[in-house]
Here is the input.
Amino acid sequence: MQMLRLLQNLRFGSHLKSPEVAAIATEIYGHCFAELAKETPQQSDAKLLQCFDAQPSNQMEASIAPTADDVWIFGYGSLVWKADFPYIDRRRGFVCGYKRRFYQHSIDHRGIPEKPGRVVTLLPGDASRDRVYGVAYRIASAQKSQVLGHLDYREKNGYERCILEFHEYPHTAAPRTPIEVIMYVATQANDSYAGNVWQVPCIARQIFTSAGPSGPNREYLFNLSIAMHQLFPDAIDEHLEELVDCVQRHIQSDEPTLLERALTREITSILTQALTDADVDAVADAPLQLEQIAERLEALHVACQRSGWRERFLNREMQQMQSS
Here is the structure.
C-alpha cells in the first residue's frame, strides 16, 4: 500500500515522457530504496579470543575422551571462525613454509559459476620465514569418518588433503611438540585455481561484487581479518590486510553511487515497461494499473533485503560501465 500511495502522490501516468519517468524513478529510489543502499552489512564481532580457551570443545557430551586414533584438522580460512563439525579440542597456531593467498575461485560458497568469488589457499614459501596462522581442531576417533566426509564435500571445489606439522601459539620458553594436522589445499592444477594473474586491486573488485550460497564474499574476507586480529594480535598478513583496505575503499567510495545508479535504472525499467504495456494492450486513455506496478516495485524492495543483493546490482552496474 505504501508503494501504491507513493505512485499516486507522484502522479505517475501514461502521459509521462522519458525524462519525467526518470525523475519519478529517482523520487521512488529516495523514498523507498536509499536507506537499504546505505545500510552497512554487519561484520562479525564475535569475541573469538574471549571464548577460545574457555570453550575448547563444542561437544554436547563431555564423556568423549581423547585417544591415540584422533586426528587434527588445520583451518586457515573460514574454518577459523566457522567450524561446522564436532571437535573435542582446538588450539591456535601456525604451519611453516606457506603463504596464504586469495588465489582460489569460489563457485559454491562465496560465488557462483557465472560470477566466482575469491577464497584462500596456500602457496609454498620460505620454511624459515613464512607462516600461516589458523586453528587446529581435534576430531575424536569415533567421529573421524563423519567429519572428514563432511570436509571432503565442503572443500570439493579444488581442495586436496595434505599433512603438515602444526606449532602452537603463543610462543613459550618450552614450546610443545608439533602436532600432525590434516589440511586442505587448493593445488594450482585444479580447475578453479585463479592464481595471481589478477593482482590485489582486481581481486578486491571481484570480492566486492561477488556473493554465493554461503553469503557475500566480503563477509568471508572481513571475518578472516577479524579472526586473525583477535586470535593472533602480533601476526601480520600483508596480503589479507591489503585486500581488506582495498575492498573497504570500494565500499566507502564506490558502493553508494553504484547502487543508486543500478537501483534507479531498475526502477526506471519497471516504470517504462508499464508504459509500454499500456500503449500496446490498453485502450486509449485507459488508466495505468498502478497496483501491478506497485507490486513489482515491492518485489524489488523485498529482493533488496536478501543476502547477496547488493553484489548482484554492483556487478551489473560495473559491467554496464565497462560496456558503455
Observations:
- The mean pLDDT is 89.
- The first strand starts at residue 71 and ends at 75.
